[in-house]
Fold these 2 entries.
Entry 1:
Amino acid sequence: MKKPRGVADILPGETERWQYLERVIRELTRVYGYREIRTPIFEFTELFQRGVGEDTDIVMKEMYSFRDRRGRSLTLRPEGTAGVVRAFIENGLHKWPQPVKLYYVGPMFRYDRPQTGRYRQFHQFGAEVFGTAEPVADAEVICLLMDFYARVGLRGLQLEINSVGCMSCRQALVAALREYFRGKAGGLCSHCLERVERNPLRILDCKEEGCRELLKEAPVPLDFLCGGCRSHFAAVQKELAACGVSFLVNGRLVRGLDYYTGTAFEVLVPGIGAQSAIGGGGRYDKLVETCGGPPTPGVGFAVGLERTLLALAEQGVELPGAAAPEVFVAFAGERAAGRVPAILRRLRAAGIATERDYSGRGLKGQLKQANKRAARWVVIVGEEELDRGNVSVRAMETGEQVEVPEVALVSWLKERLGQ
């Protein structure tokens, strides 16, 4: 049996790197005041059709949808924000003190073409802020995103920002795009030919080479911003500058989801393949309302963890790996073997990472195992030492060995382990 295409096994040795990222996420979101939310792996398909947008590549081509035994259409979540919005509405979080600041970490699913750093099951870290339309919230989520990358050690990142406008000023942009692409129909892919009349904004996100070429002369959102959107975008830039965050305004930047309004942003890193974006997000002031909730502004981002790990590997950043056991308990003699379980329990209860032999090896073989596992200390339980109420403790780095009273073993080791 083999795993399906586009998924990955994350094995011991690699899982520790994931756990490190997750620790950084949890500590960083704590100091920023975000609280964790965990939503279902699958939702009713309609949520993503309404929330993400029926004309997006995600909904049209990439969702894993199926029918349950009652014939209802369900979909493995292709992104995190729509599910968080549904939970926000269904559980009455709009009644909480505003703004509500949430984050999530978990797997997403898209039937995409597998390539380096891009899988059909992938993992995202996302953050969402509900209940404020102020530019400072846009800047805060961007600062949180950039701080995450800085803490894990990524360098040379490029933050690009844009404004895709509100629903009002976007009408003029849609009209201009429709007129422009009607005259370029011969160069568009089949999907974008349909989008010309249905939703020309989605053409701006197309990855087909022919469409990308036509986009070079296409109208851009910045040229059609109303006064309110223009002021908001200027305030976001001012706030980012005050925070010391460098950015580049990219007037052609749009995100691959229909719910974005106003600010949009992406973080790019060179050297990880053709698609160099490793995270991004934006404002979605109409999404809660679209999904059946009260009018509630929102802004957030999502980070691809696989692509983050790939970028770290490309830059040669070493993340903490598997920790060696701090202590290995060995024994010599049948009576000594009977003491090992109690000693193990006491050490582990004290928070000391402890291992033992499971194969009936002699003392020499056990010491070899301790060395292979890179244990710092070996507790040797011998029958003569037991008669004196002691155990022997060997420092593996120096070979120095001393006897320690068994009742004082935990405190003796914790002192030397820096606990």
Entry 2:
Amino acid sequence: MNASDASTMEALWSPTTLGSIHLAHRVAMAPMTRSRATGDGIVTQLTRTYYAQRASLSMLITEGTQPSADGQGYLATPGIHTGEQADAWRTVADAVHDAGSTLVVQLMHVGRVSHPSNTPHGRQALAPSAIAAAGDMFTASGPQAMPVPRKMTRADVAQTISDFRRAARLAVDAGADGVELHGANGYLLQQFLSTNANLRTDEYGGDIAGRIRFPIEVAAAVADEIGADRVGFRISPGSPLGDIEETDAAELYPALVAGLAPLRLAYLHVVHLGDDGLLRSLRDGWPTGLVLNRAGADMERRAQDVRDGLADVVSVGQLALANPDLIDRIVAGAPMNSPDRGTLYGGDERGYTDYPRLAA
């Protein structure tokens, strides 16, 4: 690393705060589904070890965690809507704090990206409109087409907002430093934003003002419950995941950010897919911390984002997954482990807690 690169990297190492969450430096762990919870959505001792191993990162954003039984779409994902689930998360939060980091639980309601056989109650999925997402869902009996979801009634909307609120309360009462609302990757909150998943004609659909209403109401309810300074919101403008189309992303996301801004949430988490003009617009319109996930970029490029003021914190995914001592490796300029793609989802400790450290 030359002197210029070293100077750029220094931007990562100063402490900062995101709302009430104090970070020792500017490198956080991005949320990543690992599908290693029990059948009833409870995280395990392996989960505790996995997060504690990665506590050299300043903030650990957990895998997507369903705020209700209706929010589950995949096999073996964790929940935080029962006391037993919350008690298990408490052990994770304690381990992460003991190791010197902070824990933010990502609340993920998958909406239509689901299959009834993957849920504890076997019910039809909920979504803004009764339109199936293209593609298959992996189930215990193999891949199956994702079925048509049930269009949410106003009562469903109100109940889902209440579910997010309660899950956030359970998370912070279990010791989490905050929660992140998953408004990205084709899941429920982004489905409401979408021009092909949301064909509603009531106040939750139609124009941009209607389509952003539900995500903003969820954020407002959660902020009211646990404090805005403990709440993040993740977006992925223009992402096609989950069979999503956003034909008006250039107007949609500035409007969403403008609607969220008065809440003064702890942070906005942006998955950057290449539209630099939109990213700058969102940065300029956001009043608090911005976490940037520039997938695939090297650490020098991510550090430059902090130095340029595009980001306050950068989040890293598979680098953190495969390198429990990621910060040590960055500082030392050491080679990185590569992730074992065959063990990303489901399984045991292999590809989860057994990645080697430098000292090994």
